Design the sequence.
């Protein structure tokens, strides 16, 4: 049992605080013989990096990853892969004002009650800074999954503003500062978030992550279900309050006929699904269709608008947070969500291989 | 790692198939010295039991639990608690028609592709019958939590029909066959589900589970978060496709001020929250407020309406399922959801005690 | 984490007390498609069964195993395999005398101090009766390992009496009541143990277990070492106080040249070891040579000779145990040791397959 | 599951290779509020450090530990404690000769067969250099155990030379380069090891580690036994081939009366044991007496004397190792063994507290 690890056969352990000297992680269980260098990880960190647009925190962190073990002559060796990112721009003084105060909606209070000690510098361990470790681990997980499996994410709602699904374009996602897949939504979101930031407020978001090219058979019938592990992985991201697979909560309003994913045969002998309400997972096990998951990110709790609160001496105070915070922390959660999905899938791919080495890599049935 | 266990210090392992001789479970890690007998478990099983109204499967199962170990002279001993429920009414012949066919939306296909062998009798391991084990384990978890912690559940939407929150009454929940908390919704749901059943169709549902009386401090900052474990536990229930905590997906549409749970002091020196958007969990750790989680259950996939599918020889066929199925599997998911929440909380209570024996049992701060 | 499970991908969980209604176990992670029935397990239980010679406990237990799940139409399905053995001959009254007294060298006292409650009927969970579960799990593990891997055990010392290694014959092992591999040692052991039993005393033993036909590569460099897992598995057997691999403690007295296992090439391109001081494991990983482990079993602590002790009220008393105990509990530890080795190897075989699917199945190098 | 972690509630994860940029570790689960700084760890590393006498490797490593997380203002925070030690003296060129050759008795071959890739620089992950991480983790474990629990180790045999138990002095251990507790054995060992080194050979050793001041109740009846975890922890140290508890293998030669640890009452109401054959553990659970474990270390396999071997192309070659190796690797295993024992005990202390918060801290019974 570990409170700072996830995964089983592809196992990630994370350490570090927002304002300590560094943050880092270990990937244990990565198979040997995979080409891996810092250049494979850095582009994913760069996507998550703060300070890239006016819509994310202005903290300046190069987020340069350094591989410390598990790779020799450009190849993974099968031993644990340790990596580290040094913290550079730790302006702890920004936090003087909230040193003794609990921000509403923030982990300040619960940490204080649980541990009795508190690293007040930018949230310590609860800071979204830790998500850089997840992104680095996700880059390694992608190596395990191989090029045939593609994992992508997009922000599909920002505050009350959604997208038009008929305009969904993956290519658009990397063209705007919101990872928004709908080109017509972008200017509206831009305007909305600019106003929110100006008002000292923040917005929530919904992120969608999709894995394509997966074999069927990943997962297990009950507690080791693929969807249960995805739910835990996404819910473990800072500020996430909801997770759904495929049709998700909307599916609860459907009847059985509408929700059924009917099947026909492809000419090549593989099963063809006529829809994907299931989000690629049935009974905890992947079908071979795209795995589709969405998660809800609450609005950033560190805001400039004063809120009623208490301090650690039990006095009633007002709190407002001056630091350099994301007005919509959901934006930077897109690469984090992708990474978590990649890690879960890499773990399940190894598990599946262990128990079911003969299972088919496609949803293929004998043709009669 | 186990595909059929959950929890760490309060650890449940489950076994058994829908149409085998029995199903059973083991609770490992239950502290010694707790009063426990079959009479503590049976009432919870009776709530989940099939055949109790026309709105659930007509399979007749007494679901009599038998304790096999871990209890001596009416007290837990600290050793593993094994229990078993015999299957009685295994009419496997009902399943002859779907022996070789894959029900759309069901685990039939993915099991076949993963394992190469398939227990076609009523879904084998994927049957909702297994949830009886969770309910029994939940009854033991409640013993660990003690009387001061109350865990309750209700169905808050059936198909497209919701409830009116202002009429929410916990007492109503046990007065109708839907675990519905809104007395005025009951006749509408009754009519709707009767029509659905008649039409050979099925409906989805949304369930809400709530834990009151918890101490603050349960959980951990990152991967061992209380909400991540709740998400996995609820998503691991058959047919669940979404999980949310507190405001959940609705919270994504809020701004930071609206979502903040402001705080004042109670006269007794404990923190008073003015709202509970967070659903009792901040930064992965319980606040001491009620923990509130909701999960979405898809409509039962075994329906009488024919759907296009394939069989295991790759032929295109039509499938309709004649067995005795729940027209709304969400109904019986209410006690299951309660049980899963109880198990997760018992586990975290033991974990918290191990690492933080001095932590306060209430959200109490020194008064200045 | 579990206190009653072992293994990771081939995971065994055990439950039950000596004098409860039954004992049982679950094997989770067994691959699907293996032929398995009760007839595959029973012969191994029969070897361990009490009451078969005057040198083991006279408790009469048929030890009939019943498979409850995970097998369908004679094949494993990939779901958890549950099995149960009913207790028949629970003469608890034999234990009346020691109800409140602590047997020196027995777990009575430590259980009492740890749990505050105690199942005084024959040791409860600490009874060697639980080892039947290990033997049943071991029979399933052998199925995972396949016929090419042979696991055998022998008792190589009984009390102060050893064997002559030059007379070691595997065939002899099943011809005498001691699992002794040296035909000339048998009559001496027989005489010695008869005298010991008559004197109301007991004897210790050393058991050797050997696995042949293993591929190289099972294990891991550091904490997940094959030998570390074997050590834990064997040390977890009741009454075991020491474990060694290959040369073991004797190797500590050797110099580097003598302990080195020199290598040449076989004509078929595989590596030929000129000796096996390493016991088939180097750096935590199997070499492909036979894995050889030995474990020391202390003399049974339940003896007829009175010993000074205390009771649970703190009074100084004398204790002697009248029950039906093994004068040399090491005898029945032979099939248990084999089973534990089989379980560890099955677990590591699955782990190895997950991470290193391309690794060779023999110690084969390219020939230049 | 992890191949590079050990422990559950006090969980250590290790990374790094002998000749990479650094090695490091993470301790997860350390309770908050313990005073901890680098100065608490460094003295233990200094005891294990190479280059301190002519009897250990001459590699020069300052082994300066750096804490990277989990400590704030001199106190543990309850979050993961990461630490790192940079490698300084990586003379990889020493290893040119064995780049393609397998040292008999070394992990070279098994790594090559398992992983297909090999870090030939000084053994990579299999080097004893990794044990520095264990020693650092052990220093943190000692903080969890507190000052009342003392953990000490000594080398009780070097090659064929043992000690005289009647001359055992803990104070002597730190006065000689062998951690030898018998002052009269020291000059003999000195002479013997000097000769061994000169001859290009090496010697094995037996180490004893002892924990005093433990409460009773640590451990569990079966698979989570304290002795099973100690066995795994000690066997996981490089070059260890045997582990025993208390009387160990000698106990197998005793009869039941001689091996029984008789009990009387102390005037203060605690149980007094008249002997400690059990090594402080009965039925997997600590008695409150000193826990005593011994482990056998094989002679270093990297020796100057040429041995027959093969290379990775399948050619038959002679191997001799020129690097800077310990002629008796057992010497530096003493602080490592202490550290592993400390880690296991810290883990079990936390586990015990979770499940049995009311258990007594001494072996105390009510006095009648």
Sequence:
């Amino acid at each position: 049992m570990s409170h700072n690890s996830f995964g089983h056969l592809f196992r990630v352990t994370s350490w570090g605080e927002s304002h300590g000297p560094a943050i880092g992680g270990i990937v244990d269980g990565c198979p040997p013989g995979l080409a891996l260098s810092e250049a494979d990880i850095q582009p994913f960190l760069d996507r998550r990096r703060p300070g890239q647009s006016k819509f994310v925190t202005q903290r300046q962190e190069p987020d340069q990853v350094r591989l410390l073990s598990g790779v020799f002559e450009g190849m993974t060796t099968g031993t644990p892969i340790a990596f580290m990112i040094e913290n550079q721009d730790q302006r702890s003084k920004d936090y003087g004002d909230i040193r003794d105060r609990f921000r509403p909606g923030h982990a300040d209070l619960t940490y204080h009650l649980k541990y009795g000690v508190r690293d007040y510098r930018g949230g310590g361990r609860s800071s979204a800074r830790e998500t850089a470790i997840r992104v680095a681990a996700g880059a390694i997980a992608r190596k395990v999954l191989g090029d045939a499996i593609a994992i992508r994410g997009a922000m599909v709602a920002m505050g009350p503003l959604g997208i038009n699904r008929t305009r969904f374009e993956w290519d658009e996602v990397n063209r705007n500062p919101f990872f928004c897949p709908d080109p017509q939504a972008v200017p509206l979101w831009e305007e909305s978030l600019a106003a929110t930031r100006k008002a000292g407020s923040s917005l929530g978001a919904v992120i969608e992550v999709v894995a394509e090219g997966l074999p069927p058979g990943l997962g297990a019938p009950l507690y080791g279900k693929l969807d249960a592990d995805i739910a835990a992985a996404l819910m473990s991201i800072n500020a996430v309050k909801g997770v759904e697979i495929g049709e998700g909560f909307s599916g609860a309003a459907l009847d059985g006929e509408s929700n059924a994913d009917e099947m026909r045969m492809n000419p090549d002998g593989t099963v063809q699904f006529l829809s994907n309400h299931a989000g690629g997972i049935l009974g905890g096990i992947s079908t071979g269709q795209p795995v589709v998951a969405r998660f809800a990110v609450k609005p950033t709790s560190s805001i400039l608008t004063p809120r009623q609160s208490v301090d650690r001496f039990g006095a009633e105070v007002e709190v407002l947070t001056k630091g350099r915070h994301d007005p919509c922390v959901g934006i930077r959660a897109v690469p984090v969500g992708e990474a978590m999905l990649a890690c879960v899938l890499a773990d399940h791919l190894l598990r599946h291989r262990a128990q079911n080495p003969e299972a088919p890599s496609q949803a293929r049935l004998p043709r009669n």
Notes: DSSP finds nine helices and 18 strands in chain A. Chain A touches chain C at residues 1, 8-9, 29, 31-33, 78-79, 221, 350-351, 353-358 (CB under 8 Å).
